[in-house]
Amino acid sequence: MNLLKHCKDFRLMHLHLLALSFACVLADFELTAEYLSDLKADEALEIAAGEYNYDNQGNDWTGTCASGQKQSPIDLIYDDADVVSIPRIRFQNYNQQLQTPLVLVNNGHTANMVLPPTRRGERASISGGLLPGVFEAQSVHFHWGSANSKGSEHAINFERYDVEMHIVHKNTRYANLSVGEASAFSDGLAVLGVMFRARPRPISQHYGLNKVFNALPRIIPYQSNTTITGMFNVGQLLGNIVTGEFYTYQGSLTTPDCAESVTWTVFKDVLDYPNAQIAKLWNLQDSRSRPLINTYRELQDINNRTISFRQL
């Protein structure tokens, strides 16, 4: 195998991401040491989760996934929520261009992209809402259904949507820890949830999301990877949604080990996105070379948790 040739394309199939990253830093795309470290930490977190699939929508997962009392996702119901006067989500450096290239990976469970610092060296971050601190953006991934089913994880007023995007953040209190290590603390992580609604329109104006979705055909096989180059900032992932109205609650990761360490912020507004773009997700393959579809966990019991809603 001509390794450097494959690295120039950055599409080595079925190789460990760690080995891929080290090899490709020698080729045309030189990734920063910080980004390489983040990629390795993300790979380690995926390995630590062990083997799992969505055949039973998570109902066969064990450990905290089965025994936890603050599990996610849940149905976010306006009539059952506390309407509260809390600050907006404040976005810092969300409009600053990220260091590129970005690495998009099919890890067998989702399309995942680790987010590097901005070109100024700072990380995009969020605060406000009911967030217990400042949280820096770490990665983004997606959950989806199939041609015949919706695939968002959370439901809003009993309705599921076609796709749910998760932007994962880590509390700056744990800046020296990995995302996996920070998940051991109840205030370790914060996730923004954005719903996508499939529309028949053929063209999207959402530039950043288009760059991600246009790269999906290059990561169809399990453990395949590609790069996204050029101008890109985290704010582009939000499209044109209204961020002033949202549900927020204390919950968990929605994949093993389902650590109960997440402050969830799920926006009420829904992003309309072309069906042709969303359909690209259905072509991805899992570790068994099966279609990677219906990648959502079953709704979990609320267990008397407080669900808060901020409205304009």
TrEMBL record:
Q: Which EC numbers characterise this protein's activity in its record? A: 4.2.1.1
Q: Looking at the record's lineage, which domain of life comes first?
A: Eukaryota
The cross-references to Pfam families, in alphabetical order and at most eight, read: Carb_anhydrase
Q: Which PROSITE patterns match?
A: ALPHA_CA_1, ALPHA_CA_2, PROKAR_LIPOPROTEIN
Q: Name one GO molecular function term.
A: carbonate dehydratase activity
Q: Write out the transmembrane intervals.
A: none
Q: Give the signal peptide, or none.
A: 1-27
Name the catalysed reactions: hydrogencarbonate + H(+) = CO2 + H2O
Q: Name one GO cellular component term.
A: cytoplasm
Q: Which SUPFAM superfamilies match?
A: Carbonic anhydrase
Name all Alpha-carbonic anhydrase domain ranges. Answer: 50-311
Which cofactor is essential here?
A: Zn(2+)
Give the UniProt keywords, A-Z.
Lyase, Metal-binding, Signal, Zinc
Record function comment: Reversible hydration of carbon dioxide.
Q: Which family does it belong to?
A: Belongs to the alpha-carbonic anhydrase family.
Designated name of the protein = Carbonic anhydrase
Name the source organism: Drosophila albomicans
Q: Could you read off the lineage of the organism from its UniProt record?
A: Eukaryota, Metazoa, Ecdysozoa, Arthropoda, Hexapoda
